Amino acid sequence: MSDRNSVLERLSRRDAQRLEKLQKAHKAREEVDASNENEDFFSGAFKIRSEYIEQLLSQIPTLETSVLTAHFDNIKREVNELQKYVVTSSFFLKEFNMRKYLGIVQNLQSKCYELEDQYVPRKKFGFTRKKIPKSDNQKHNLDEHDGVDKIDSNKWDDKLFGFDSLEGKVLLLENDVLFQRDVTMRNLKNCTIGLKGVMGTLHLTNLDNCIVLSGPVTSSVFIEKCTNCKIVTACQQLRMHTSTKCDIYLHVTSKGIVEDCMEIRTAPYNLRYEDLEKHFNMSSLDKNNNNWDNLDDFNWLAPDVPSPNWSILDVKGRVNDWSEWWSKIPL
């Protein structure tokens, strides 16, 4: 009788284990199906939105010159929204597909700027200088610091805006001129750039020994050909190319991307200024989600070995207080 009970007990345990395995398999299958459904829906929605942008781009040759600026602004907004849609869907997108979709967005953005250069050409090397009015307090503060220049902006159009080809300057812009603009800094050497505001995108190209102190960027920060810079920025997406010996104090809500870079070091975003909290709220960036220490190196494919091209900046080597850096030229 005892042998029979023992056999029944073993069978019961075996059945219970089998049932548990079946339940786990069923649950896993449901999760995969849900993920596939999410990705299928995303794929369809992405296709509709990207085709709409393509349609807007195809209309450009047929439009009057007087409406082109507004039309390009609309395309840029649509591209930024599509990029935001991809980034906020990263929790269920496979990494390969995430890269594919971001690549499509990047191509649409590049096509937009190429067509803009063609149909609304900018003057080569002749950027107009538009002085931004300063209050008496600002003028007084500027006079107190040697080397702090008047705040001139190189203004390319109503949305794209920034500084170009300067050396040894302190360049400061506030939210009233920055808000949701595409901001570009390029060909700068030994400059400090202070951006106290909310930007749509931020492009940093060919900066040498510069300090960039940036408020939140609603969508993307693009860094290219920068050397020996300190960059403090908060954004939804970071893309960094062909840059060397840069320290990035970063808040990024998706996984940042580096490519063809060397000696990049990261630390958490630690900028402070009076309206920063308000600007974060205006940008809709998630302050609780920061991937500053989780970059994806497109030149390093070994999954189990850390990339040698970027590392975490040692705590002892970090700048903890930027308050004195806003007004001094890098040595």
TrEMBL record:
The keyword Transmembrane helix does not apply. It comes from Papilio xuthus. It holds the Pfam family TBCC. It is found in: Cytoplasm. GO terms for biological process: post-chaperonin tubulin folding pathway; tubulin complex assembly. Keywords: Acetylation, Chaperone, Cytoplasm. This is Tubulin-specific chaperone C. Residues 133-300 form the C-CAP/cofactor C-like domain. Supercomplex made of cofactors A to E. Cofactors A and D function by capturing and stabilizing tubulin in a quasi-native conformation. Cofactor E binds to the cofactor D-tubulin complex; interaction with cofactor C then causes the release of tubulin polypeptides that are committed to the native state. GO terms for molecular function: tubulin binding. Belongs to the TBCC family. InterPro entries: C-CAP_CF_C-like, CAP/MinC_C, CARP_motif, TBCC, TBCC_N, TBCC_N_sf, Tubulin-bd_cofactor_C_dom. GO terms for cellular component: cytoplasm.
